[in-house]
C-alpha cells in the first residue's frame, strides 16, 4: 500500500486469492482486507480516513453549520412522556451537553392518573435514576444498551452494555431498592430478556460463533453465571431465538424463527423451572407469533394467508387455530397487542400503516383514522395489561414525532407530546407528496417526497433519493430535524418504496428477494428516472443514499445506471454480498440463505448473485462520486466489504471520486452518542450538498 500524502488516494496492495465454486474461479486481490488483525489493514483504513478528511476539508465550515443547525433546533434538555407500569412512572431524560439518555422512574402518587411532566425537561420531583448512560459511558468511545428490563415487582433491573459496537453485551442485575449492582455478571449476551412472575429468575440469550442467538438461559438472581441452566438451544443454523415476557406477565415466550419459518414455546412465568411447551411445531414456510390473552393464545400467522390472518387457540391446551380476522389480500397484518378488554392489530394497507381495534366480546371492530395522506403510526410501549388507554406514536415527513394516548372505549385521542423543534420551524412551510414510477416490468412503484412549499417542478431542484428494499422492511415516512437543513436549502427528499420491502404487503417483499432480487435495483433506477422525467429534479442534481442492505442497493445501482446519479452515499454497505454469503462461518450468513439464496450449494443462485453483487461487477465506466461510510466493529456488515469495494473502484475506474470513512470504534449503527451522531450526519449532508452544488 502506498500513501504518499493524505491528499493522494491510497492504493491498496493486491494479493491474489482464488475462490472456486461451481466450476467458476475468481481472483480476489483485496481479500486480505478481511483480516482486522493485519497491521496493513488498519494502516489502509487510516490512510483512507486521512484522504477523506483531506478531500472534504473545504466542507469543514459547512459541517459545523449543519451540526449547529441540528443542535439549535433540538431541545437538548428534555423528558419523554412517562409511562405507567404498576406503582411507577417510567421515562427517559436528556441533558444539554450529555451524549446519552438517563433512565428514570417516579412513584405514582395518590389519585394521580395523568402522566407527570416538567415544561423545561428537568427532573421530576421525587425522581429515581435507574441508569445513567453518561456515567456508564465515561471513559469509553462507544456505548450502547442492549437489554433494559425491570422485573414485574419493580425491584430488579436487568441491563446489558456494549462498549465496542460489536453487539456483544455484558448482562448485569441492579437492586433498585438499594441501588446496588449485584455480582451477577454474564458476558457475551444478546438483546432480549424475560423475568419470572416473582422476579427471582431471569431468562437471557447468548450467541454462537456466527453471532446467532441460539441459547436461552435461566439465571437465579444472586447466583453465579456458572450455575445458569440452558432452557432451550436451537441447533438449526437458519434460526434465531428470542425471549420475552407477555404483557399479561403470565408466560415467558421463546420464539425460534428463520426468514420464513417460526416455532414458539412458552413457560408459565409462575413456574420458571418448567419445561417449555410448544405451541405448534415448525413447518417450512409457516410463520407465526404468539400473544397471551386470558384463556387463549392469539396467533398471527401466514398458513394459507399470504398477508397473514389472526387466530387463537386454547392457552391450557394449544391445538387447532380458530380465525378471528380472516386473511384479506392487500392488508398485511403485522402484529397484535393484547389488553384485558381490547386487541389492537398493527397493519399495513395501500402503503400506509394503521391500527385496528377489536373490543373483546364485541363484533364492533374499527380502524383508527389519521389526517395526513402520508404518515406512519404504531403503538408505543404499553406495559399495562388492564388498561383501556393505549399509547401510540405518529409522525410524517412534516409532522414531528408525536405521542398520543388513545382511549379505546371513547375513541378519543389526546396529544401528550410532540417532539419540540426549536426556532422558526413551521410545518406549513413544507409539503409532502406521493408519486408513482413505472418499473421495467410495468409494476407501479410508490415514491414519497417532501420539500419546501412551492419548490419548482421544472427540473431545477436538487434531490436525494433514499432506498432500502430488503427483509420486508418498510421505509415509512419519518420526521428528521437534520433533514430540515437540506430542505431549507431547496433539496427534495424522496423515498423509493421498492420491491423487497414490505410497503405493499408480503407479495411486494417476495418479488424483491432470492432470484427476483434484481427487481429491487431496477425499481430504484426507475424511481430515479421518474423523478427526472416528472420534473422533480435532474440527473446531475440527484444523489442516491442507502445503508446496510440499502448499501447493497447503492452499489448495484451505481453499476447498473451510473449515469442516473450525481453522487451515491453508501453507509455500512453490504457490497460484497456474494463472498459473504458463500462463507457460512461469518455472522448472519446461514440465516441469510432464505433471503438471498444459498450460492454455496445452488449454482443458479451463485450465478444470479454474482451478476448483481456490487464488488463483483465493478467495471471501467464513469461512476458518480461515491462516499462509503463503515465501522470497524460492525458485526452485521463487516468493514472490509466497503473497503474492498472502494479499493477495486479506484483500481478499475480511476477517474472517479471515491471516499471511504471508517469509524474505528463503532458498530453497525455508527457513533453512539447523540452529538457524535449529529456530527456524522452533518458530514454526510455536507458531502451531499457539495455534490449537488456542482450541478
From TrEMBL:
<keyword id="KW-0378">Hydrolase</keyword>
<comment type="similarity">
    <text>Belongs to the peptidase S9A family.</text>
</comment>
<dbReference type="InterPro" id="IPR023302">
    <property type="entry name" value="Pept_S9A_N"/>
</dbReference>
<protein>
    <submittedName>
        <fullName>S9 family peptidase</fullName>
    </submittedName>
</protein>
<dbReference type="InterPro" id="IPR029058">
    <property type="entry name" value="AB_hydrolase_fold"/>
</dbReference>
<keyword id="KW-0720">Serine protease</keyword>
<dbReference type="Pfam" id="PF02897">
    <property type="entry name" value="Peptidase_S9_N"/>
</dbReference>
<keyword id="KW-0645">Protease</keyword>
<dbReference type="InterPro" id="IPR051543">
    <property type="entry name" value="Serine_Peptidase_S9A"/>
</dbReference>
<dbReference type="InterPro" id="IPR002470">
    <property type="entry name" value="Peptidase_S9A"/>
</dbReference>
<dbReference type="Pfam" id="PF00326">
    <property type="entry name" value="Peptidase_S9"/>
</dbReference>
<feature type="domain" description="Peptidase S9 prolyl oligopeptidase catalytic">
    <location>
        <begin position="478"/>
        <end position="692"/>
    </location>
</feature>
<feature type="region of interest" description="Disordered">
    <location>
        <begin position="1"/>
        <end position="20"/>
    </location>
</feature>
<dbReference type="InterPro" id="IPR001375">
    <property type="entry name" value="Peptidase_S9_cat"/>
</dbReference>
<feature type="domain" description="Peptidase S9A N-terminal">
    <location>
        <begin position="9"/>
        <end position="418"/>
    </location>
</feature>
Amino acid at each position: 500500500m502506498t500513501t504518499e500524502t493524505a491528499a493522494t488516494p491510497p492504493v491498496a496492495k493486491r494479493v491474489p486469492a482464488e475462490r472456486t465454486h461451481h466450476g467458476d474461479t475468481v481472483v480476489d486481490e483485496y481479500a486480505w482486507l478481511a483480516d482486522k488483525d493485519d497491521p496493513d489493514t488498519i494502516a489502509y483504513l487510516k490512510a483512507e480516513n486521512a484522504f477523506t478528511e483531506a478531500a472534504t476539508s473545504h466542507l469543514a465550515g459547512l459541517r459545523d453549520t449543519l451540526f449547529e443547525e441540528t443542535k439549535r433546533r433540538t431541545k437538548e434538555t428534555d423528558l419523554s412522556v412517562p409511562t405507567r407500569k404498576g406503582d411507577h412512572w417510567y421515562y427517559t431524560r436528556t441533558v444539554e451537553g450529555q451524549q446519552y439518555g438517563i433512565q428514570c422512574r417516579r412513584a405514582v402518587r395518590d389519585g394521580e392518573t395523568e402522566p407527570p411532566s416538567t415544561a423545561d425537561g428537568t427532573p421530576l420531583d421525587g425522581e429515581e435514576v435507574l441508569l445513567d448512560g453518561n456515567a456508564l459511558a465515561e471513559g469509553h468511545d462507544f456505548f450502547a444498551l442492549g437489554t433494559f428490563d425491570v422485573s414485574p415487582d419493580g425491584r430488579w433491573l436487568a441491563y446489558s452494555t456494549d462498549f465496542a459496537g460489536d453487539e456483544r453485551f455484558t448482562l448485569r442485575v441492579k437492586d433498585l431498592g438499594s441501588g446496588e449492582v449485584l455480582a451477577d455478571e454474564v458476558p457475551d449476551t444478546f438483546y432480549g430478556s424475560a423475568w419470572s412472575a416473582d422476579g427471582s429468575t431471569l431468562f437471557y440469550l447468548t450467541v454462537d460463533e456466527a453471532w446467532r442467538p441460539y441459547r436461552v438461559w435461566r439465571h437465579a438472581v444472586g447466583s453465579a453465571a456458572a450455575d445458569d441452566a440452558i432452557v432451550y438451544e436451537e441447533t438449526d443454523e437458519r434460526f434465531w431465538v428470542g425471549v420475552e415476557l407477555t404483557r399479561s406477565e403470565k408466560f415467558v415466550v421463546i420464539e425460534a424463527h428463520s426468514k420464513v419459518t417460526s416455532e414458539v414455546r412458552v413457560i408459565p412465568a409462575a413456574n420458571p423451572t418448567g419445561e417449555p411447551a410448544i405451541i405448534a411445531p415448525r413447518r417450512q414456510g409457516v410463520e407465526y407469533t404468539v400473544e397471551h390473552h386470558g384463556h387463549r393464545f392469539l396467533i398471527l400467522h401466514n398458513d394459507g394467508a399470504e398477508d397473514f390472518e389472526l387466530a387463537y387457540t386454547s392457552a391450557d391446551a394449544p391445538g387447532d387455530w380458530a380465525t378471528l380476522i380472516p386473511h384479506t389480500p392487500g392488508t398485511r397484518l403485522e402484529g397484535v397487542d393484547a389488553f384485558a378488554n381490547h386487541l389492537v392489530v398493527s397493519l399495513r394497507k395501500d402503503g400506509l400503516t394503521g391500527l385496528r381495534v377489536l373490543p373483546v366480546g364485541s363484533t364492533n371492530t374499527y380502524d383508527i383514522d389519521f389526517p395526513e395522506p402520508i404518515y406512519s403510526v404504531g403503538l408505543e410501549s404499553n406495559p399495562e395489561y388492564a388498561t383501556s388507554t393505549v399509547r401510540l406514536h405518529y409522525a410524517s415527513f412534516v409532522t414531528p414525532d408525536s405521542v398520543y394516548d388513545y382511549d379505546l372505549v371513547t375513541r378519543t385521542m389526546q396529544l401528550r407530546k410532540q417532539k419540540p423543534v426549536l426556532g422558526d420551524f413551521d410545518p406549513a412551510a413544507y409539503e409532502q407528496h406521493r408519486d408513482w414510477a413505472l418499473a421495467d416490468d410495468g409494476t407501479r412503484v410508490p415514491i414519497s417526497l417532501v420539500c419546501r412549499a412551492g419548490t419548482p417542478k421544472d427540473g431545477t431542484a436538487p434531490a436525494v433519493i433514499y432506498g432500502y428494499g430488503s427483509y420486508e422492511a418498510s421505509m415509512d415516512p419519518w420526521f428528521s430535524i437534520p433533514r430540515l437543513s437540506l430542505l431549507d436549502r431547496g433539496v427534495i427528499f424522496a423515498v423509493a418504496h421498492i420491491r423487497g420491502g414490505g410497503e405493499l404487503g408480503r407479495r411486494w417483499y417476495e418479488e424483491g428477494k432470492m432470484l427476483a432480487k434484481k427487481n429491487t435495483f431496477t425499481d430504484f433506477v426507475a424511481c430515479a428516472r421518474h423523478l427526472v422525467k416528472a420534473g422533480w429534479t435532474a440527473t446531475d442534481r440527484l444523489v442516491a443514499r442507502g445503508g446496510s442492505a440499502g448499501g447493497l442497493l447503492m452499489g448495484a445501482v451505481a453499476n447498473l445506471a451510473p449515469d442516473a446519479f450525481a453522487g451515491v452515499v453508501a453507509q455500512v454497505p453490504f457490497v460484497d454480498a456474494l463472498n459473504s454469503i458463500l462463507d457460512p462461518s461469518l455472522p448472519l450468513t446461514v440465516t441469510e440463505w432464505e433471503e438471498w439464496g444459498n450460492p454455496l450449494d445452488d449454482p443458479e443462485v451463485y450465478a444470479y448473485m454474482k451478476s448483481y453483487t456490487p464488488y463483483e461487477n465493478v467495471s471501467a465506466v464513469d461512476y458518480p462520486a461515491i462516499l462509503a461510510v463503515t465501522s470497524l466493529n460492525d458485526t452485521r456488515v463487516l468493514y472490509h466489504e466497503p473497503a474492498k469495494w472502494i479499493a477495486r473502484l479506484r483500481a478499475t475506474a480511476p477517474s472517479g471520486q471515491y471516499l471511504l470513512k471508517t469509524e474505528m470504534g463503532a458498530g453497525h449503527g455508527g457513533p453512539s452518542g447523540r452529538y457524535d451522531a449529529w456530527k456524522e450526519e452533518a458530514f454526510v449532508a455536507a458531502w451531499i450538498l457539495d455534490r449537488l452544488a456542482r450541478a
